[in-house]
Amino acid sequence: MTFSKPKRAPNAAGSALRAEAAFQPADIFISQPESVIYHRDFFHIPASFAWKRMLDILLSSVAMLLLAPLMLFTALLVKMTSPGPVLFSQERIGLDRRTADRRRHMSTPPSMERRRQNRRINPGFGKPFKMYKFRTMKMDAEKGGKPVLARKGDPRITPIGAIMRKSRLDELPQFVNVLRGDMSIVGPRPERAYFIEEMKKEIPNFPLRLRAKPGITGLAQVELGYANDTEGMRNKLRFDLQYIQSLSAITDLKILLKTVSVVLTGKGAC
């Protein structure tokens, strides 16, 4: 004999909260951290989808086969024009798979909820991984100093590196990251833990972008390009959160099509 659990009556407060979260514009997440950063339903957004993983594997496999000659040519250019390795790897923070506890009562004390949410969005809870690129900078570009975002005319960038960054050829090795499951083809760009911590001081909701797997391209990239200051990061975060809230196969395909235009024109490169 088997027993089934009795059905619970719908929780009106919980339903209202979920409905409110579904229609929150991305700007709200930026401008009102006191009311939204602890909005537990944001963490119920699915972290991954089967269709997205299948699309990633298919497109990455095809891309690596078709672009193999170009990748080999790019690797030779890097090797012949500057000393050092062809590939550059760097630890980035990936997907934060945790979700809010659905069983938590609405009566949870605000102070306890804030502590829980602060732990949840700590970048250390995102999955670290090694991201690969063709090397575009001189060796030991950050030796003896703190991490610095690249800028236009950055003296650390090699002449060939500048061309690769403008055409996005330096990003091609990240198809390996996609096949490994560290990244998706479309998603927010992966950041280093250092910059996540720095941005969090000015933009408390910045780690919410970890709710989606990082991507080679993304909505923020095709709309705004590269950012190297707080205001630029804030603007890109609006697009990152908008993407996470409206994630779909159609959205990904639209971004991929726009990426082709961005690559051909060199828009937003640094």
Please provide a written account of the structure.
- The chain is mostly helical and 270 residues long.
- The chain has one domain (30-265).
- It is built from twelve helices and four strands.
- Strands 1-2 form a two-stranded antiparallel ribbon.
- Helix 9 (193-202) links the parallel strand 3 (184-186) and strand 4 (215-217).
- Helix 4 packs across helix 5.
- The longest helix has 17 residues, at 50-66.
Chain-wise SSE layout:
Blueprint lengths: L11 H11 L3 H6 L1 H4 L13 H17 L1 H14 L5 E7 L16 H12 L6 E7 L24 H9 L6 H7 L3 E3 L6 H10 L12 E3 L1 H6 L5 H16 L3 H17 L5
Parallel strand pairs: 3-4
Antiparallel strand pairs: 1-2
Helix pairs in contact: 4-5, 4-8
**Percentage beta strand:** 5-15%
Head-to-tail CA distance between termini: 67 Å
Which whole number gives the mean pLDDT?
79
In DSSP terms (H or I, runs of 4 or more residues), the helix count works out at 12
User: Biggest sheet: strands side by side, in what order?
Assistant: 1-2
Task: State the domain count.
Answer: 1
Find the count of extended strands (DSSP E, 2+ residues): 4
Structural class: mainly alpha
Biggest sheet descriptor: 2 strands, antiparallel
Oligomer: single chain
Helix share, percent: 40-55%
Stretches where pLDDT is under 50 for at least 5 consecutive residues are 1-25, 33-41, 100-107
Structural Rg: 21 Å
Shape: globular
Order of helices and strands: HHHHHEHEHHEHEHHH
